[in-house]
Design brief:
single chain, alpha+beta
Length: 81
C-alpha cells in the first residue's frame, strides 16, 4: 500500500438510534463523538438509523411480496395454465 493515501482504519462503536443497540467494529469513518465501551476504552461513536438489530430481514418481520416470475405473470395475464 502507498503511504499517506489511505484513510485510518480503527475500531468504532456503531449505535442503532432506533433500538439503542451498540456494537464495536472496524471502520474508516470519522466522528467527533466518543463513547466508553465495555472494555473501558473510549472509541468514536457513529450513529446509524438501522442495523441488524432493527432491520426487518434480520428480525424476521420482513413482509414478502410474491410477485411471481415473468412466465407466471404472462400466464396469469392471458389465462394460460
Amino acid at each position: 500500500m502507498k503511504p499517506e493515501i489511505h484513510p485510518e482504519y480503527r475500531k468504532v462503536v456503531f449505535l442503532d438510534t432506533s433500538t439503542g443497540f451498540k456494537f464495536l467494529s472496524g471502520s474508516t469513518k470519522y466522528s467527533n463523538e466518543t463513547i466508553e465501551w465495555e472494555d473501558g476504552n473510549e472509541y468514536p461513536l457513529l450513529k446509524v438509523e438501522i442495523s441488524a438489530d432493527s432491520h426487518p430481514f434480520y428480525t424476521g418481520k420482513q413482509k414478502l411480496a410474491d410477485a411471481g416470475g415473468r412466465v407466471d405473470r404472462f400466464k396469469k395475464k392471458y389465462n394460460l395454465k
